[in-house]
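Hi, here's the filled form for the chain we discussed.

Project: internal
Contact: R.S.
Residues: 553
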Amino acid sequence: MKNYDKYTPQFRLPPVPCTDWAKKSMVDRAPVWCSVDLRDGNQSLVEPMSLETKVQFFKLLLAVGFKEIEVGFPAASETEYAFLRTLIDGGLIPDDVTVQVLTQAREHIIKKTFAAVEGAKNVIVHVYNSTSVAQREQVFKKDRAAIKQIAVEGAALLKQLAPAGGYRFEYSPESFTGTEPEYALEVCNAVLDVWRPECSSKAIINLPATVENAMPHVYAQQVEYISKNLAYRQNTVLSLHPHNDRGCGVAAAEFGLLAGADRIEGTLFGNGERTGNADIITLAMNMYSQGVDPGLDFSQMPKITQGYTAYTGMAVSPRQPYAGELVFAAFSGSHQDAIAKGMAFRAQHARKVWDVPYLPIDPKDVGREYESDVIRINSQSGKGGVGYVLQTAYGVNLPAGMKEDMSYKAKHVSDVSHRELKPADIYEVFEKNYLSNRPVFDIPECHFKQEGEGIECRVTISRGGKTDVVCARGNGRLDAVSNAVKAFLGCEYTLTAYEQHALTSTSSSKAISYVGIQSPKGAFYGAGIDDDIIKSSYKALASAVNNLLGQNL
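And the returned structure, exactly as it came back:
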């Protein structure tokens, strides 16, 4: 690519090193969460949400557990003003939920904003003005002192207009990451000097990465500098509003929390202007995966995804962390095998700690199912995955050799049809190849009699529309039937595998048997299901031998 030399870093580092955040290994407590889906997320949509849709989205955010929700910029649009009044006049805001409204630091806009929130019980009035070098020079054409004065006058008007009780104030130096940190601190402290926050009514200082212009560790240093030097720190909530222009919004938010921030403003799935905001779902679930309670409920992730898509018209990527359709799906054979063994190990050892290979969290914790969401079969899949699906969905626990044989047959179907196989498709492959395949012969019935140390049997064999009865002896029932089949059909093979189990745990359950045979042509397998375990075994034998003889068809 050409013309890269016209770009230069736009960020400013603090005047002193601020790297204490780097000594921490994880975020060990949940921040205060503020959803800005209804403002920042909404203004990023090609078709902004209607009033009715915003009400439904607001209810979704309440169900997730948000206690602070930015509901809009009421002075900017009639829809947002009407939405806020609908929430207030309709009594739709729970007593423990605070609505946040955004306003520029301009007198007429601030006054209209206060009119819009009249009657609300708990309100955050969020005032901002841009402080970055580029905005000062190119947009406002004002020096540092003049830009600071805009912030101070806006803060003073908020304090003047706010009724007693229920109102809190928030200030953002917009384009914080493009502002000299020492100047951003000067402006924030000047605002706090106006508000003089108390412990019972803390102010919020919000540090927006309005345009993400640096690596996350730079944002962390900027945040740490403000946190360490902010006036009234004990009475101030330090908030972050990261955007995602470099694709690092989540990382920047996590680093910022390590650096001293107390609060995160973000959106579900990271929706927002340009490349979006910090993704609150990913942030919260990252904490959850480390054993930290995020204070938000994403246990019904599919419903949240459906609601979000319906309200915004935005698609959720199938690879979206924790929420995408395919994030728990394993198609690779080696991955499937490891997951299946990990799940078996977990069950066998009653494991409490979650450490299943390839699954960072238990899919069930976010409303997903192992059978339909984890092990998914296509032409890349292996024996472990195919076996896992048959076992979990149908109670069919294939012997080791048969798993491999079955996996080749399933992969062939997927490869030819160019599609993923659902559990029902896999069982159809199993049924067709091992249960009902009788192209050469079948065994309708057998009768057995103990003869000394062996077994004598009378085997009814049907072939080509004719039925014959063949007698044979063996050291067991299956061996005797096998000898009868060999004698009648003139084929040679050796019994190499025989396993059986109940398909369910009830006393009236059906039994399934598996038989493996070895001939010069290779290994062949069959399965049989019946109420009678003996019948299931000779049905399985018939299937295996039919697979052997089918090589000649």
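Let me know if anything looks off before we file it.
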